Structures are given as C-alpha cells and as structure tokens.
Amino acid sequence: MTPTTATLAALRCGQLKGIRRLDLSCDLQEFPREIFTLADSLEILNLSGNALDALPDDLSRLGKLRVLFCSGNRFTRLPEVLSSCVHLEMVGFKANRISEVAPAAISPGLRWLILTDNQISELPDSIGHCRRLQKLMLAGNQLAQLPEALRGCVGLELLRIAANRFQALPPWLLQLPRLTWLAFAGNPVSALPRDPTCAGPHLHWDDLVLAEKLGEGASGVIHKAHWRPSRQEPAQPVAVKLFKGALTSDGFPAHEMAACLAAGNHAHLIGVRGVLSGHPEGISGLVMPWIEPAFRNLAGPPSLASCTRDVYDHSQRFSLPLLLELARGLAAVGAHLHERGISHGDFYAHNILYRPEGGCYLGDFGAASFYEPQACADTHPLEGLEVRAFGCLLGELLERCEAHADARLATLQAMQLRCQAPVPVSRPRFAELVAALEALQP
Fold first, then answer.
1. Structural Rg of the chain based on CA atoms
2. Does the 3-190 domain belong in CATH 3.80.10.10?
3. Cα–Cα distance for residue pair 52/72, rounded to 1 Å
4. What are phi and psi of 387, to 5 degrees?
5. Which homologous superfamily does the CATH classification assign to the domain defined by 196-289?
6. Per-residue pLDDT tens for 6-22?
7. Of 101, 199, 105, 92, nearest to 146 (Cα)?
8. pTM over 0.90
9. Among 354, 439, 433, 437, CA closest to 388
10. Which fold is adopted by the domain 296-440?
11. Where along the chain do the CATH 3.30.200.20 domains lie?
12. CB 404: neighbour CB atoms within 10 A?
C-alpha cells in the first residue's frame, strides 16, 4: 500500500480526526466527501496532482480552511465556490486547463493567488476587491492586459506575469505603493537582448565531472562539478546548473540564462563561467564559479504564514560593520544591474549567499526581466520597485543588528523609510544608496 493510498484509507476509516493539514495525491477523480469529517480542524488542504475538475458546492463546510492547493488537476474554470470559504487566504491552481475566471470565483480575503501555467486571457474586475492580496502568480497564461481594478490591491507586493502577451506594462501598475517583486520576462515588452546560447564561452559536458547535488529550485538543479578544460591543467571546482526546461512560477529558464549572461561580472554577483554544451540529453545549463561552503543563504524563502517575507534563523544577528558591508555590496549590485536594464525581480535574502566574516553574492535570475533604462536623473519605476526590495532587506538586517547606541543606525533607518516610500519615483536610486552607505563606513 502506497503512502497516498494509506492516507486515503486512513481518512475513510476516520483515523485522521483533528489534523490541520491533509495532502492527497492518488489520481482522485472526485472530491472525497470524507474530507468533511475534518471540518472542525482542517486548515490546509492539498489536492494537487490528481484528476479533479470540480469542487463540491458545499466546500464552505470546511469552516477553518485557509489554504487550498489544487495544482496539476483538470479544472477548466476557477471554481466559484471558493468565494464562499470565508477564511480562505491562499489558493493554488497551477498547471490546470483554466481559461475562465468568473467574477464570483475571487474571494475578497485572498492574500496569495496562484494561477500559473493555465490558459487565462482575462481577469475579472472583482480581483480589485482583494485589498489584502500580497502575492499574485500569473506566469504562463494568455494575458495581454490586467484589469485596472487591480489598482485596488494596494497591498500587492509580488506579481508574476512572465510568459504572457503583454506589449507594455500598464503605467498604473508600477505606481502601486507596495509592489516590490515583479517578473515580466517572456512578453513582447521584455524581449531577450540576445540568444543566450550564443553569449559567453561554451564549456563542454565531456570536460565536466558532476559531483554532489547542492540544491534544487523551480528552474533547475545545481551540482558541484569538477571542470578540466585541458589534460594539462588540474581540475577546477565549479557549480553547474542544469535547467529543467519547463515553465516555472517565475517564467522560462531560457530567460534566466539570458539574464545571468547579460548581467556580466560584478564582485557581488555569483556570475557565470560559461554556457554548457554537449549534454547527452540536450539539457541546457550554466557553469558558475564555485562558492566556498563558508557562504550560506542569508535567510530562508517565505513560508505560507509569512507570504512575502523571508524566514530568518531566530538566533541570527549581524554586527553593524557586517550590516554596512552587506548593504553596500547589494546596493552596488542593484546599480550594476539597472544600469544594464535588468530587473532582478527576486531581490530577496534567500537569493543571497553571505559569510559571517564578510562577503556576499546575489544569485538566482529566474524572475529577471529586461527593460530600456531611461537616461535621466529620476528613478526609473522598475528600479524603484527593486529599491523597495532593498529597503525590505535593509529593515530585516536592522531588526537583527547587534548595535544599539550607534548614531549610524538612525541614518540607516531613515534610508530604509526612503526606500519604501509609497511613490516609486521618489525613492533613491541605487547609485545614491551606494554613496550614502560608503559615507557610513568607518
């Protein structure tokens, strides 16, 4: 008996009474009515990876339900019954066949809506009623515009609209007061500057020996490897990212590869050694410098509870000199990217490697997009979004700073507030932040 079958059997035998989370993935054709026996406790229901195309009309009987995942099923329309679940905050219907989102299907209490990889060409105006909406995932659909009613989502912080049909970004979108992390590659508005396979040196698969797996993300798997460019040279440690080749929540891996290459070299970017060629299965990939194990992620990714905020270790603390070094380095990276018309889109602590003794690197270009930077003194709206992300990061570091009586803290707190100003063009440019942070160095 498989674990999924055992769970379904346990549900039907009444053995799961009182549980708060239920995961069922066992080729379900219909919603199991036995789930309603958990109505007094169930908060998270994951029905992803089944063959469902409908939900029961009385779903609201699950009176404590906060999170519902139905990704990888056969829904053709977003079920209207969702709006009857008064406590529902997070809804995920990734990789279905949804072409219709009825106005009544949008629950006004949503904080997080995932509709990635469907066939949606239009969103209803009712989404503008979601005043608490923080995260909206729409990559891989057929959208050419967003309803102007979305302006009502004043709490929206993270938006993914990559791999759609946008010819332009609505000007009002970039004026949303809290919008911070935006991915829009794979649209006509963000054309690739070049074919990523033609940029940079090519490193052949036969010159690499793959070692242990270092990590895995939505777009690919990273391994340690040993690269020997010639038999006369000793092998060099490198990291190899093998792309999965499928649409992710952020967009297409090809655009991530292009952004990595276009970003070029910088002291605080992980960087690229070359493009992988000659993989026996035709898999695309990048060869990156080896980062010593002393470097670790600055934080963990957001959780269901934190939604748009990274999760730090409870004991994590930063000295003021380290905080200043990290902030200056990351502001410099922001300036470097936006001078080249690259919006990182995921400027988060969980995409930063740092070492407690000093040093940091920004990585993961999965949400990166290209744009034409303007030649004027004002902050470009897209740079303004990324500066707000920097402000969020600076605030997280300040919350964990060991120093208490240093006058520079007040200056940093004022900088954070400027970075998070409600009007994006009134925020400082990254170059200005670099100069201000350098002035605070001892």
1. 23
2. yes
3. 9
4. -65, -35
5. Phosphorylase Kinase; domain 1 (3.30.200.20)
6. 588 899 888 999 999 99
7. 101
8. yes
9. 433
10. Transferase(Phosphotransferase); domain 1 (1.10.510)
11. 196-289
12. 7
